[in-house]
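Changelog-adjacent note: as of this version, every example in the card shows the full chain rather than a window. The one below runs 268 residues end to end.
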Amino acid sequence: MTGSEPAVHEIDTTRPHPARVYDWFLGGKDNYPVDEQLGRQIMSIDAGAPRAALANRAFMRRATRALARETGIRQFLDIGTGIPTEPNLHQVAQSVAPDARVVYVDNDPIVLAHAGALLRGTPAGVTEYLQADAREPGTILEQAARVLDFDRPVALSLIALLHFVADEDGAHDLVDTLVGALAPGSCLVLSAMTADFEPENVRRGIAAYAAGGVTLVARSHAEFSALFKGLELLEPGAVSVTDWRPEGTPDGEGPVSLYGAVGRKTAG
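Full-length structure tokens:
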């Protein structure tokens, strides 16, 4: 499932890439000067952008840990994986449940180039990487079924993915198809950009990304919540990712411009 074709030659280092800009915000090393340039431009608009990236990753870790501990879920499907950062989702899940099975999905050659780091799981568990487009959920489900048993609960993670997919481009259809294939007891973990907290900063940030060739969508609380239709939101509901079951000392003051939530599927 990891693929065998080298992807390094497909990586364009002349244009900024959202995964590499995100990596730069996180303090990673898998980025290029063009990505740093856009990152610094974003920071000139919103100095809190790196904090938002870090808060988003922390939300993913807390949500994954909570599901592994509290619900007994042992299967995880992470779509829009991005460049690996430690601890990654499989490390969190398998630290709680060593037998957890994790499938990562991305269609980005940058991620494929680093896929080896995604496959270092526990001997008792399984970690796999699937090279596939998030806009083709049927293909993802078919291939992920080689590793995951969709008759049992699965935690589906769409972390910082859907602000790249507008509603009119099929965001709801994507979520509906994926969630529709999951067994009762499964959960959807989702984070996405919002302009509710800092509308001007987000507007200018979206424009900066657009100048770099990247389209982003900011959703209101109501629009974000609508992605969970038919699901039961776990406490504390849809909130800024900083406010979803925070642990320890808050990193900075106030919310960041990303909503996060976890919804449980209670019926087939």
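Structural remarks: The chain has one domain: 8-245+256-264.
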